[in-house]
């Protein structure tokens, strides 16, 4: 499971399982990545649930 983050500043991909981990980064600064990672971590359960719901059908 993973999530993509895309904005005018760049694009990143984070693995959600087994551990939250940055997979790719194009354009985001370290500070931006810290902020994004914090948001992803805070919503991780929701993201995993949405992933499972979307791909189970």
As residue ranges, the low-confidence spans are none
The overall pLDDT average reads 96
Helix/strand/pairing category: alpha+beta
Helical amount: 40-55%
Rg computed from alpha carbons, rounded to a whole number of angstroms: 12 Å
**Overall number of domains:** 1
Largest sheet: 3 strands, antiparallel
What is the count of helical runs? 2
Number of strands: 3
Shape estimate: elongated
- How much of the residues is beta strand, in percent? 25-35%
Our measurement of the CA-to-CA distance between the termini, rounded to an integer number of angstroms, reads 16 Å
Placed side by side, the strands forming the largest sheet appear as: 1-2-3
The secondary-structure element order is EEEHH
Can you walk me through this structure?
The protein is of the alpha+beta class. It has one domain (2-56). The chain is built from two helices and three strands; from the N terminus they run βββαα. It has helices at 30-42, 44-56; strands spanning 2-7, 10-15, 21-26. It has a three-stranded antiparallel beta sheet with strand order 1-2-3, covered by helices on one side. A hairpin with a 5-residue loop joins strand 2 and strand 3 (21-26). The two termini are 16 Å apart. The mean pLDDT is 96. InterPro entries: DUF4160. It comes from marine sediment metagenome. This is DUF4160 domain-containing protein.
């Amino acid at each position: 499971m993973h999530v993509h983050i895309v904005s005018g500043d760049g694009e990143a991909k984070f693995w959600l399982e087994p551990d939250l981990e940055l997979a790719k980064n194009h354009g985001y600064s370290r500070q931006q990545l810290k902020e994004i990672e914090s948001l992803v971590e805070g919503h991780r359960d929701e993201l995993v649930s949405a992933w499972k719901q979307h791909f189970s059908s």
